Write the structure tokens for this entry.
Amino acid sequence: MSEPIGRVDGTRIWQNKFLDAQLDRVRYPDGTIGEQVLIHHPGAAAIVPFLNDPAGDDPQVLMIHQYRYATGGKLWEIPAGRLEPGEAPLVCAHRELLEETGCTAAAITPLTTMWTTPGFTDEKIHIFLATGLTRGESRPEADEFIEVVALPLAEVLRKVESGEISDAKTIIGILYAAGFRT
Amino acid sequence: MSEPIGRVDGTRIWQNKFLDAQLDRVRYPDGTIGEQVLIHHPGAAAIVPFLNDPAGDDPQVLMIHQYRYATGGKLWEIPAGRLEPGEAPLVCAHRELLEETGCTAAAITPLTTMWTTPGFTDEKIHIFLATGLTRGESRPEADEFIEVVALPLAEVLRKVESGEISDAKTIIGILYAAGFRT
């Protein structure tokens, strides 16, 4: 009887409020054992928020322009944030939309889910479409430096095509929301 | 005169052959100081390899079906790998295509670049289109368990739409290669 593939055992390298780094021994599909670093992440929700009808004339998207230390500058992103312990992705989507943009949504529906970079983290982002927005005041966290900007979807798509929008979840969310169909 | 934003100082948490985790003190745009964990990554190249004319009838893409410990199973991906020290992304693209699929390409051209998850890593993936392939034997690394599979682009797009393809670089590479245009 063959042993199951996956984690054999492991040790925690480091952990803080945001990150949990583990060094695991792993059984591979061929039965051999190797070592893998895993940045354990609780998962996240991201939202493509439309201020008007996404299928109507000149749909407008609420975007975030945010300083990101890792990139050395500002990125155009859709609102997003990590799941709280036990929190369902849909609940997280409503919460993050409110925190980052001040908006409540009449409807939030799933678009897709994606692994950000499965070579070293189990982070999975659940991406949603939000419609029927009511605007209010945003309440960013202390280490969030964000500007909330309404942009025409056509302009957002141009920024995706030109590479000015370069954040993975944002590219994917916008292309799905814009009606990617095979 | 205001101080520049970004890294003030930091310490290395942990490092191995693949990952370099740093805990940095950072000056934010409002002048306040905070702490950020940064998983430093050298960057990567990913390739969408076409076996025939991407604009012709029934284009075929060479895909990778790969065990990923972080996800607990196999993912459909495009060939990809990290940059060697000093290596240009285009050189890396040729090398990874050869290592993972055994193919050489007559032409490799850039599609876009993307940040995988800028909240905690500076990993940036350069995505390319490869055409004019000559097939040979793949030479995966010891911890890579990959199957190389040729699939019709139409089927790959269906897998993107259904969510069966859920790896960020793969979704983005396929949608750009399939001719996403605004």
About this structure: Chain A touches chain B through 60 residues (CB under 8 Å). Residues 99 and 139 of chain A are 5 Å apart (CA to CA). Chain A has a mean pLDDT of 92.
